[in-house]
Amino acid sequence: MEPRKLEISVISDVHLATHASKAKLVLKYLKSIHPDTLILNGDIIDSWRFSRSYFPKPHLKVIRHVIKLMEKGTKVIYISGNHDEFLRKFSEVELGNLKICNQIILELNGVRTWIFHGDIFDYMIHQAKWLAKIGAALKGLLTMINEFLNVIARMFGWKELFIYKTIKSGLIRDRSLYTSFEKAVCEAARKRDCQTVICGHTHVPKDTIMTTESGRIRYLNCGDWVEHFTAAEYMNGEWVLHQHSDTDEDLSVDEFEILNDQQVLQSMYKELVM
Fold first, then answer.
1. The whole model's pTM is what?
2. Which DSSP letter does residue 206 get?
3. What are the backbone angles phi and psi of residue 233, rounded to the nearest 5°?
4. How, if at all, do strands 196-199 and 111-116 pair?
C-alpha cells in the first residue's frame, strides 16, 4: 500500500526509551505516511528515563526511519518537550532537513498556527519538577507490571490490560483537570495572533473550538503514542486529528533488552549508520 501523502504530520509524546512507548505502532504509522513536513512535538525521546539504558530495537528503528524520511526530502522539525529538554540548548539549530526549536508558528492558507509542546503551562513541571519525576517513575513501574500481566493475558487469550489508562480515566472523567491548561494555551495563542494552536504534553487528544477573552481559536492536542496513538495531520487546507488503528499484534510488548551504556551506543550506531 502506498503511503498517504500529507503536507504536515504532528506527533508528540512518543517516550522512546521507556517501557510505556509503543514504538512498533509509531513505526507503522510513520511508514504509512509521506509528509512534506514531520513535526516531532516534544517528549519523543524520554531523557528522564534514558539513564536506565533501556532502548529496544523497535525504538531505534523509529529514529532510523525518521532519518530515512529526511533523506527522502521530508523536513523534520523537532520541538523540545520537558522529557527531552536537553535539546533546548540547541534551539534554532538547523542541519539539512532537520530543525530543532522550542516552538514554531506556521502560516497556512492565511491561518497562523502555533505549535509547541505545552509543558510551559504545567505548574508542576516548573514548581515541583521532582514530584513530576516521581510520577514518571511510578508510571514506569505501573507499565512494567502491566507488561507482565499482559504476557499472562496473551497466554490465556484474554484481552490486554491498560492499568495506567484506566486509573487516569477514573481520575479525570470530566476532563476538568485540563480546563485551566487549555484556557491558558488558547489565551496565549490568541495573544500571538494565531487562529489555531497545536500542543501535546497532556496525552489527551482533543480537537475543539474554544472561546477566549481575545476571541475564538481552534485547539488541537495531538495526543500521544503511549495510550491513544493519535496525530494532527494537515492536508488540502485542513487540520484533522487522525486516530491510528491498532491490532493486538501491534500492541505486543517490545523486545525486552537491558543494555549497558557501551551497548546502547553500539546498537544505535548499527541501526543508524550501518
1. 0.76
2. E
3. -120, 140
4. parallel
Q: How far apart are CA 177 and CA 172, in angstroms?
A: 6
For 112, residues 6+ apart whose C-beta sits below 8 A from its C-beta are 105, 106, 192, 193, 194, 195, 196
Alpha-helix runs per DSSP H in the chain: 23-31, 57-71, 123-127, 129-155, 163-171, 179-191, 261-272
CA distance 136 to 251: 21
> Is 234 strand, coil or helix?
strand
Q: How do residues 220-237 score in pLDDT, each as one tens digit?
A: 999 999 989 999 999 999
Report the distance separating Cα 50 and Cα 45, nearest Å: 8
- Determine the 3-state secondary structure of 7 from DSSP: strand
Report d(CA 68, CA 174) in Å as an integer: 41
Cell numbers placing 7: 503536507
Q: Is the pLDDT of residue 162 over 70?
A: no
Residue 193 region by backbone torsions, left for phi larger than 0, else alpha for psi between -120 and 50, else beta:
left
DSSP state for residue 255 in the 8-state scheme? P
Grid coordinates representing 187 are: 489565551
Report the pLDDT value the prediction gives residue 47, as an integer from 0 to 100: 85
DSSP state of 233: E
